[in-house]
Design a protein that fits this description.
four-stranded antiparallel sheet; Alpha-Beta Plaits
Amino acid sequence: MYTVFSTFDVPPEKSEEVIAIYQNRSRRVDRADGFVDFLLLQNERRPGELTVQLIFDSKENYLNWARSAEFREIHELEKNYPDQELAAIVPKISKYKVVAG
């Protein structure tokens, strides 16, 4: 398995707004080959720190998703979000091969 974390900081007063966006996400990634799970994590001590975790069955399937037209479309929509402060956020991406479970 392969997991990817995208961690980003939003102003704490906007964290609920961002959480609602992810709760109502398009779920397009869910249909990608090899997709296993999606989680949105919120740091307990710093509520403005959010992390998206994607789990795929393989690195190859994740890379196929990340190179897809659907991936590009979703991320272009994020850049056009009306709240430009949120649209300008650049996440820190970490990628991991699962070696034990």
